[in-house]
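1st attempt posting a full record on here, be nice pls
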Amino acid sequence: MFNKSSFPLVVSGIIVFCVIGWITSSIYSYFSYSVPPKFSLNGIEIDSAFAKDLKFSVCGDSGYKISHIGALIDGKEIELNGTTKVGAKKFEAPFSTDITTYSDGIHKLEVYAIDSSFNKNKSVQTANFCVDNSPLRAAFIESDYKVDQGKTLHIKIQSNKKLAKAEVEFSSAKYECLPDSKGSTTYECFIPIEAETSVAEYPLTVDLEDLVKNNLKLNSQVRIIEVQFPRQRGFTVKKEKLEEEKEISASAKVLDEALVRWLEQSPKEKMWHGPFELPVNVKRITTPFGEIRMTPELGRYIHRGVDLIDNPKAVVWASQIGRVIIKDRFLISGNTVVIDHGCGVFTLYFHLENFADINVGDIVKKGNPIGRLGMTGYANGYHLHWELRVRNISVDPMEWTKTVY
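the predicted structure (as tokens):
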């Protein structure tokens, strides 16, 4: 039978036993633990740049409490501003160190954590960062800008360093400037000038920001030159053909909406090299860019491409390397292929007889077949309507065959 007077002794024995067990377990863990600490280095991502102070944080969730943290830059121990003694398994600690004496450019940061076990287990995390203590300097490569109606305005800016932002504001619209090649500090922007743009001098502003948030603003002027676009009395397309096209084609609105969507996905780099090429063996150009037309079905409008004549059903090829983003039949443009060349530059090929063995998403090289010359859609004879758009605004494609952008 249980003796109540012995209860305190039993409880005390249990407590002593538990304490001894805990002490034994702790001692065993202290001497035997061999798992390196677990922690992450935060605040330094790819292309991270810092001026004056390098700031980062260390976040730990380790199996054994961490004793302390240290760091090296380029292999040399540094002094950290922050609590380097931890004494816990879970923690998040911010740190900073003075980098004003370091040269501009890439440096290597090594952060280590050592636990408080007998084995002093150690882990190291590394990251590259950029020191940028220089003021931001930049300038237009050309001091004077003038451009014809319907052509492409090409802006180039030379910076002394890599930029986080380079944005042009022109005629109430904004355009992103991108490096002209990988790793370059020359930034360029393609601005489409619509054929209907009023002849005048327009202000142009560029907002620049480097990786450490220094800002700079550049200003210039752009003079739009008048072009006397030709006029055409127009042509007619048989009613029966238009009715047939309506039955088998998507509306022009579907094409317009698709181009808007694809523009948002255009790569932020040039895919092309050298000039664009004419996509057929041109026998003659029947309709130039910008010609003012008047037709019974469409009324008055500006022709936004060039109509090229070659033999009926002749091969049509890609004028530059790019990705096929549209391959379909539409009411006005007929069998249509659209190729994205990067930086929001598209080429469009209308009225094709049929398509080559290509699919949306394919990368086609300059000169690869994309179809055959036809007269599908709103057309009354065999020809290729070839169009080039920058940011979904049509510009004279012939300019891109004569100028290397």
